[in-house]
Amino acid sequence: MDNKTGMSPFDAAFHASAERHERFWIFGVLVMLVLLTIGTMFYVVHDYGLVTGTQSYATDPQAPAREAAFQDGKVVRTGPNSYAVYMVGRAWHWAPDVIHVPEGAEITFYVTSADVLHGFEIQGTPVNLTAMPGVVGTVKYTFRHAGLFRIICNEYCGMFHHAMVARIIVDPAGTP
Amino acid sequence: MNMEIAADTLPSTLPRSESDRAAASTCRLMLAFLITGFSALLIGATIGPLQALNYGGVDAYPALRPLLQSYYQGLTIHGVMNGYVFTFFVTCGLLVYLPARELGVAPNLTMWRTCFAVMAVGALCVIYAMADNSSSVLWTFYPPLKGSPFFYFGITLLALGSTMPLPILLKMRATWRRHRPGEITPLVTYMSLTTMLMWGLAGVGVMAELVLQLDPWSLGLIGTVDPIINRTLFWLTGHPIVYFWLMPAYVSWYGLLSRQVGGKLISDPMARITFALLMIFALPVGTHHQFSDPGFSSIWRGILVVLTMSVATPSLVTAFTIGLSLEYAGRLRGGKGWFGWFRALPWGDPSVAAQILAAITFILGGATGIVNGSWQLNAIVHNTTFIPGHFHVTVGSVTAMTFMAISFWMVPHLTGRQLISRRLALFSVWTWFVGMTIFAIGMTWAGLYGVPRRAWVSALPHDTYHALYGAASVPLALVAAGGVLLWVASYAFFAVFFGSILFGRRAAPPPVPFAQSFGGPASSTIDSPPNPAQSASPLIRALDHVWLLTGITVLATLAAYIPILWPFLHHVTRAPGWILW
Lengths: 176, 581
Description:
Radius of gyration of chain A: 25 Å
Mean pLDDT of chain A: 87
Helix content of chain A: 25-40%
CATH class of the largest domain in chain A: Mainly Beta
Largest interface: A-B, 69 and 74 residues
Number of domains of chain B: 1
Oligomer: heterodimer
CATH topology of the largest domain in chain A: Immunoglobulin-like
Order of helices and strands of chain B: HHHHHHHHHHHHHHHHHHHHH
Number of helices of chain A: 3
Number of strands of chain B: 0
CATH architecture of the largest domain in chain A: Sandwich
Order of helices and strands of chain A: HEHHEEEEEEEEEE
CATH topology of chain B: Cytochrome C Oxidase, Chain A
């Protein structure tokens, strides 16, 4: 028995070894987490650049949905190769529920809700934005491939939440 | 009742008969917390597999009318019973009982009974509100979905009651310290206290949401609420709640498991550092659940990523310390080589098997958690089945299995009755382990196909279901299979749990298996010999100042939340309620 710590020699040896390895482990953990953090930040800033933003707030939760852009529900051309889409979630459908956008164009989605929370998820993409009553959120995305994409509500909104699905048809580049 | 052993550790200053009675009451109350908690799990776990079958395309709900009206009603009950009622009752029992036994100080029974009563009334209100389908708002109850007053007041009482162990713990610790000046708080008490302090602070968010908004709103006293402010307040509590689920399991892993496997805890200081870090990091990071919400700046999202990654540190430290403590025990038991020590552990003890298997599932739980916290990856998995996949291998395995493990020694300890079947207990935890792993792999995998969480997909027309989620048919089949296995596992467990309480053979009750740490004292009770050799480092002495930790946590939380809530408070939305189920 070691008088100071009350440990047997086996315990003391195990303990000393444990402390050495512990330092090494914690160092490894910290390095791993720093690298993961840098990695995720790098992707946000340099790769997709997909960050949800805020366009506006309203006191009346129905107010954004009454704005002309949301009521029209048309895809608006905003530049040579950029478009804006205004989307309102209501229990239990998206308006508009079918939209056409061109392949390769930068699409800015403006999303709000006229009642409860909805989730604006475009299946097969990282587009994922909470549709919040009284807030217009934005997200930018460029579809690289033509085809059919689905907007699926992924925030519980009541009895037919699961049926709240809309379609985005990405037309091949060059079609009028 | 196990009066004899309990009486031994109570202060010898009390007259014998009185301390006997107090010890018996303490045991009975602990048993009441345990039985109530596991009864909630019985309800929640019975409904759970219906959710899993839903994702596999099997809709069981039409067959269950008029008992359950919809998948969403079932899911609300599942989440609330398992996430709140089960965990709160077991935790509020354990985190008083274990420190009381470690310190050898009787808890204030009146306060502990009040804690039980407040939570019980709350639970009954919530059950009533969920059973009549008036509040199918899911466990997150995001407004402006509007449930009944019974639901919100029930949750208010549950949350309030769940913080009541804090003053009991502070009082017991103060009594112990008066008798033993200069010594640092014993480990289990320290871990329990930091957990309850963390939770007491965390509760401020949801209490503000409920008391200032949802409670008066549900009564019609105010007409509208702000959805985004309430969502933010919810996650101020909703993220730390995962640590309120996790930390009691860690209390068992650090404080008991090493003894149960026949070894020692390798490092007492590391356990303390882990709990202090969990306390400080748990609170400021709640808004990482809102990476997909509009409303706050990208700078803050970036800071949250860094803070969220930091929370992984204490769990990875735990992996090391617990792993090495197990290795030590395995080598003492004659295990040789790289993996021999792991095989040499007492796998025949269902309490040990459950905790080690729980720890293994946490590898998947922790890794998926890092994915959730990684901003860009979060955009892919947010609100898909990936998320429940993740938390079923944290709270659904680490917490649930560790609480099951605790019940395997605690039922005999409290009742003086043996388990009716060790083999059935082992069967239940292994099946739970396999079932939950299959379920979680299926859920996380399906999430990558964009399958949304909390969606009654089996109620869709068959061709719609197939068009939307056909690509994920293999993972969704795994989800359903895992759910069915979990059904089997939970009923095997409940047969052991309730069977042993009612019919177990009488035997000498085992003591609480408090672990000794390297260089630490064999016992820390108030009347044990003084422990002057306690050569705690300055860091550990500093960590013992829990009010200092509390202050740091408060400052960090304010720093994180004021900039986020500021724009919301200047752009209040007045949203009326909606009942849409």
